[in-house]
Every structure is written in C-alpha cells, then in structure tokens.
Amino acid sequence: MRLHASPESLQDAFRAAMAAVCTPVSVVTTMEDGLPYGTTVSAFASLSLDPPMILVSLDRSSDLLEMIRRTGRFGLNVLAHSQSELALNFARKGGTAKFTGVRWTEAAGVPALPGAAGFLACEVEREVDGGDHVVLLGNVTHTEVADGRPLTYHARAFGTHTALAG
C-alpha cells in the first residue's frame, strides 16, 4: 500500500504505526564530573554478538548525547516491569535532578539502576546520523542480568512481556 500524505499527516501515521510496536523501556546513563545523568529511551537493540554491541537512539538535541560524546561511554538499564515510575522520571527534563531519591550504583564507570532487568555498560564505537536522532553504536564492556520481566511500551502504555508456554 502506498501512502500519499502531507509531511504532518505522514508523521502522525508513522507515530501511530510505531505505537503498534512493542519495545523495551530503558534508561541510558552516563557520568560526568562524578555526577549521574540519564534519560528514558525505547529505541535500543542488540547489534552484534562478536564483538558484543548494541545500538541506542538519542534525540539530536539531547544534553545526555553531548555528555556521552565527551565521556565516550554510556550505560543501558533495561527496566523491569515494576519500574514504570523510573521510566517516567527519566523521561522528563532535569539533568542530575532526575537522580534525586533514586538509588544507583556505579558499574564500569556509568550509573546502574538496581532492580533493572538488565544492564549493559558500553564504550561508543561510532555515531550514525538518523534524522532528528543520532544512533550510538556501543561496544559492550560489562553486563548484569536479573531475573524478571522487562518493562515494555506498546500502544502508548507501559506493560510487560510474559513468554507463552510452548
């Protein structure tokens, strides 16, 4: 099917189509001058097993992107199903204020959020231009995995994934 639409209606249609995709909810973190920073993302994926790599997409105007460019590293915290409040907290503006009252530890030089379903520490390998976003390709240097269901985002709402018995 071919869609003929104005740019605005194409963006609305694209947004609706992407709402139909279930994505993991993660918080990307970095540290600068000993202070933690982070933001919520839903555009993250594994990229390579050899070497272990992931990709994550950040808004081109993101302050966090600028910090990651300076530090050369980032953490990816895959949130657990019970961490929707953290997702909302890190989705707002606020620099280090997002970490007020939030427990965190340092792992491989970046902030890790306790209770996350998974954590990956990465060094930036490369940046790829992606329109109004920048895709960071990260070499994984450290991982942590916890048992539990991940937090997902689908149809503009948080949920989780439960594997079907086969």
UniProtKB/TrEMBL annotation:
GO molecular function list: FMN binding; riboflavin reductase (NADPH) activity
UniProt KW Nucleotide-binding keyword: no
Gene3D superfamilies in the record: Electron Transport, Fmn-binding Protein, Chain A (2.30.110.10)
UniProt KW keywords: Oxidoreductase
Pfam families referenced in this protein's UniProt entry, alphabetically: Flavin_Reduct
Record-annotated Flavin reductase like domain positions: 18-160
Record protein name field: Flavin reductase (DIM6/NTAB) family NADH-FMN oxidoreductase RutF
Phylogenetic classification of the source organism: Bacteria, Bacillati, Actinomycetota, Actinomycetes, Streptosporangiales
